[in-house]
Amino acid sequence: MTEASQGETRPPDGRGFLQSQVGMLLTTVLVVGLGAVAVVPWLLSSPERMARYAAAALPQLQGDVTFGSVRLGWAGPMTFDDVRIVPRDGSAAPVRIRRIVGSHGLLAMLFSGGDLGQIRVEGLEADVVYDSQRRSNMATLFPPPARPAIGGAEVAGGPRRSPVRLRLDVEDAIVRIAGPWSPEPWVSDPIQVRAALAPAADAAHSEWTIEPVQLLTDARLEPGVAQGVLAYIAPVLADATRTGGRFSLRLDGARLPVGEPAAGTLAGRLSMHEVVLGPGPLAVNVLQSLPLTLPPPPAILFADEANVDFRLADRRVWHKGLEFGLPLAKPGQRLDVESSGSVGLDDGSLDLTLRLPIPVDLPQDRPLLAALSGKQVSVGITGVLGEPKVVFDGSIKAAAGDVLADFIDNIRNRPRPAPAPGSDLPSAGEPTGGDLTAEQVIDLVGGVLDEVAKRRAERRAAEAANPGTVPPRRGGLLRRLAPPAQPGEEIAP
Predict the structure, then answer these.
(1) What is the pLDDT of residues 425-439, one digit of tens each?
(2) Phi-psi region of 468 (alpha: psi -120 to 50; beta: other; left: phi over 0)
(3) What is the pTM of this model?
(4) Which alpha helices (H) appear in 281-390, and where do they start and end?
(5) Domain boundaries, the chain
(6) Residues with Cβ < 8 Å from 123, sequence gap 6 or more?
(7) How far is C-alpha 264 from the geometric centre of its chain's CA atoms?
């Protein structure tokens, strides 16, 4: 090779230059992409930025979610510390969580299509505050979503689909319940809950499924929890003047739609342990409405292990098996009451039936009560919690009609003559029950019996004061009730 040929400079190859430029570009893109990927967890780990994401995900929440610290990673678990829900009205945070730990990292969430994995909630504290109308701060904080107006009125939104799925473990949660019924809040024992968020069977919306769990065992029955929560299961608790005893609460499972949990279903059992109440409006109104003139009892007694089964359906809390006793004047005697029906979850409206078996050993010095012994009557209860209204369903009228029929059969077995002018007693052939109300039937029977007893007492007194004299003349009432004289029988003047 010559020197000239050795000193020549070859022109650059165009293909090699292009390849080198593409390589540099790909390297740059890769570095930038890796940097962006690496910075995403850092961006999401900002408490302020995470609070904005929470606000966008929960537009219906009337408050702000704040975070003390956030730690996210592509592979590792996510952790949120010191989580609070703060109302925008400036009131104290009703929900505080010490820590939330998720099993999935960001990469696992992306590849699973929105499955957040197992979420563990530690140190949850909830402060529920009720007003005199049983409206809680939680209802204000989590109002139902709104749908487009229908006929000019806005209606509550229905269930909705959630973009994520998860399994939730709540450990050692504490619930405090306060209200105008007591100066001190009721505080629960630690509560454990297992739940899952997933699409419903029809896939039209998502729902929370709560596993069966014994929520509370032998907890103190104090006014806060009795009036704010348990009154929906046992309406006799509403506005009770005194509350004492213990209770247990079991949940047999629940399905609560996302966006409208009140439209879901749940079931459980409330167990009363040695519960004694001061009489509230329900017991007092029932006793005042009965035609037995029973005074309000000093206390309402539950059986030592009274079990009340309840369920949520159609936005109402239904119950059965609620039994309580109203002590009567005679020691050891009580009027047992069995309650069933429902309470509206939104407005506290009542739709109840109370069954009252009348004791068989009522005082015999009152013929009317003695005649009602052993019979069962029932009344309906409407109105709202704390303001019940008694509605008779006809059973008292039927029982009183039976008493009247028995009384007439005992007095006479043939039609009586027409009453004297101006008499208020029914004439022969005139209906005795028919259109009479229960109270009118009771008054009629009671008046007749009282009058008979009065006349008999007067006659005995006259005979005792003047032995051997002619018996006093019968009054108009007894003359009308006496059977017609038989042929040859002398009629007293």
Answers:
(1) 444 444 444 444 445
(2) left
(3) 0.71
(4) 281-289, 367-372
(5) 39-144+158-211, 401-465
(6) 96, 97, 98, 99, 172
(7) 14
